[in-house]
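INFO batch 0412 | record 1 of 1 | parsing
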Amino acid sequence: MDSESSTPPPPGQAAGGRRRITGLVLVVVVVVIAGWLAMRRPVDCELSLAFGARAVDVRAVKVTLREGSAEGPLVRTISLQLPPGPPAPIARRVRLRPGSYRAEAVLTDGAGRERTVRRTLTVERDECALTVDLGD
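INFO prediction complete | emitting tokens
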């Protein structure tokens, strides 16, 4: 029988090993959280509204962006009044976190009639150019 294997380590050695393991676990947790936060950092996006031929009489548009789905938290609202005539594409800079968004646009024509267009958008981590086709 080996006498070294049956003797417990000195008290200071056991505590030092536990401290090293605890420190390593803490470092891993911090790295994982930092990585997750970096992936969710907002990015600059160019949000383009393309009206299409059907939108010749549109005089106002209100776009709402919700995170995830139609019931998700509201993250941005854009309201615009448009001059008479076919609207040209409009671009706005917005900051959004990577992920999926639900865009809902309410278009109001010269007679006050409203039409709603819904689209799903995805924001990537590295680049963000979003086009909302409102031509239906």
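INFO post-check: The radius of gyration is 27 Å.
INFO record closed
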